Amino acid sequence: MNKTFISRKLLLIALLAAGVSCNENKQAEKKPEWVSLFNGKDMNDWIVKIHHHEVGENFGNTFRVEDSVIKVRYDQYGDFNDQFGHLYYKEPFSHYHLKFEYRFVGKWYPSAPEYTLLNSGVMFHSQDPRTMPKEQDWPISVEMQLLAGLGDGNARPTGNMCSPGTNVVYKGKLDPQHCIESSSKTYEGEQWVRGELIVLGDSLITHIINGDTVLQYSKPQIGGGVVTNYDPAIKIDGKLLSKGFIALQSEGQPVDFRKIEILNLEK
């Protein structure tokens, strides 16, 4: 075997090794991709749970898809009867960036509680809806509360934090408030607003409205009040919430949701 043949063989091995290494680096550098949670056509990937009803029963056609939008409506209700509802994506998430658009439309349902006027939300780190008894009113979860201005000239920020059956650490201490107000401006009328959540397990959580960071807190955990008729085996106060389900809320105000996308940050 001559030296030229050996040199060519070594060169080929080196090139193959370099190619493998380059390919591995490209795979390692491949960025995660945004995934649509809502296909614009149906709610087959979503689970309904409405207070006073069994999981899976979409009472009054509360949640419906029209024109590539998830619409929340109450036109088939009688008395509202605290029939608070949530539409859950089918699987839980832990570390992620969620973005969506929402707008308030139409008239508030008059027999709903007054605080629900121009009020909705996106729940996250929620318990599995299949663990909720029929008479449980709210899921144990954290809420990105969505509000609109009342047209009275008073500030009414959106992207707030509310905590049904949970607590969070805010400004360095466990905060007992049910809701913590964000720094967002007030949005009036039926305009589309873009909301974003950056959730890092049981660590830092960031709320973003129309590109502006409006609230940050950390260590979401089970605790606090508001939720009733829950299964005691689920509500373990003090347990950190590192993952859970994402849900869209219905509580008396017609609202639309669209462009619901997630970027999984677990890896």
UniProtKB/TrEMBL annotation:
User: Locate the 3-keto-alpha-glucoside-1,2-lyase/3-keto-2-hydroxy-glucal hydratase domain: which residues?
Assistant: 33-262
Annotated signal sequence is 1-22
Q: What keywords would UniProt list here?
A: Signal
GO molecular function: any one? hydrolase activity
Check the record and name the Pfam families matching this protein: 3keto-disac_hyd
**Highest taxon of the lineage:** Bacteria
Coiled coil (residue ranges): none
InterPro entries cross-referenced by the UniProt entry: AL/BT2_dom
Q: What is this protein called?
A: 3-keto-alpha-glucoside-1,2-lyase/3-keto-2-hydroxy-glucal hydratase domain-containing protein
* Native source species: Chitinophaga arvensicola
Q: What is the lineage of its organism?
A: Bacteria, Pseudomonadati, Bacteroidota, Chitinophagia, Chitinophagales
